[in-house]
Amino acid sequence: MATISIDLDALDFAKGDGTVTVVAQDAATGQVLMVAAADREALERTVATGEMHYRSRARGLWHKGATSGAVQRVVALLPDCDGDAVLARVRPAGPACHTGQPTCFGDVAAEPFGALDATIAARRTAARGAGAPSYTQRLLDDRNLRLKKLGEEVAELVTACADGDRRRATEEAADLLYHALVALQAAGAGVDDVRAELERRATPSGTGATG
Fold first, then answer.
1. Residue 135, domain CATH
2. Long-range Cβ contacts of 170-174 (<8 Å, 24+ apart)
3. What is the pLDDT of residues 90-101, one digit of tens each?
4. Which of 92, 126, 145 marks a domain boundary?
């Protein structure tokens, strides 16, 4: 289990009568799953177990998914600037809503890069059947093919940009992003790792390579 850290002493529980607002977000797709409250004990249990715990007046301390199996495995806990809210980036094992829907906010479109990354990850872990593998599975299984296609897409994007062809450059960029995500998955990484690196570079102590 990955180490989860958050400075609980920096949170302002008093403002919310002993709780802070927690926004649960799918770490892979970027979808907001639910909003709930958590007190210090709930967050301590979250950190200790790596799975989300909340606090409500009706249920008291509760472990999300304890009975349904739809647990939320924590990737990161990020306090807001005022310390009275926490963004919980999670990997859900099932629907977040009691209605059985993936989120409590209806049919909200997923962030496209996260959704694509999640699909590629599913292809990587899926069992290979008797039929022909998908193109994504072929790339994941064949290092030489994967790297060859990645190089081809880079060259095609460069050519389209050099020609000033907006439509073709957009299409080639989409192709390159797909193949880059496949290559990242094959290396054991994904969109979340790229986001973390960009966030690190954006901080004053980062490399500053993004701006």
1. 1.10.287.1080
2. none
3. 999 999 998 888
4. 92
